[in-house]
Amino acid sequence: MIENGNLYNRAARFLDKEITETLISQGAVRIERIISTGQCSPNNFWYDQAENEWVCVLQGEGVIEWQNGSRNILKPGDWVFVPPHEKHRVHSTTSKPPCIWLAFFWQK
């Protein structure tokens, strides 16, 4: 079945909460659109995922923090690859404009 959509649709409507939408999930691959409006990871929380992640920012700005204290500031067009079990968190995101992420997840 052919599906289509627009990554920027409805982005401005969600100003009070973060939205994660699975666009595709087939086998070991998942693609998500995430709309953040100032949200960040809770203090002392670290993502520790068993899968690979490739994420880019399409709009706004997001800051990824690594367990070693370093940070990547992602602006539109910037991306980062996160290997399995590389502990990381979202340090900050912009609210105006909302930060739109596109994330690909897959198993080795």
From TrEMBL:
This is Cupin 2 conserved barrel domain protein. Residues 48-104 form the Cupin type-2 domain. It comes from Aminobacterium colombiense (strain DSM 12261 / ALA-1). InterPro entries: Cupin_2 (IPR013096), RmlC-like_jellyroll (IPR014710), RmlC_Cupin_sf (IPR011051). The lineage of its organism: Bacteria, Thermotogati, Synergistota, Synergistia, Synergistales.
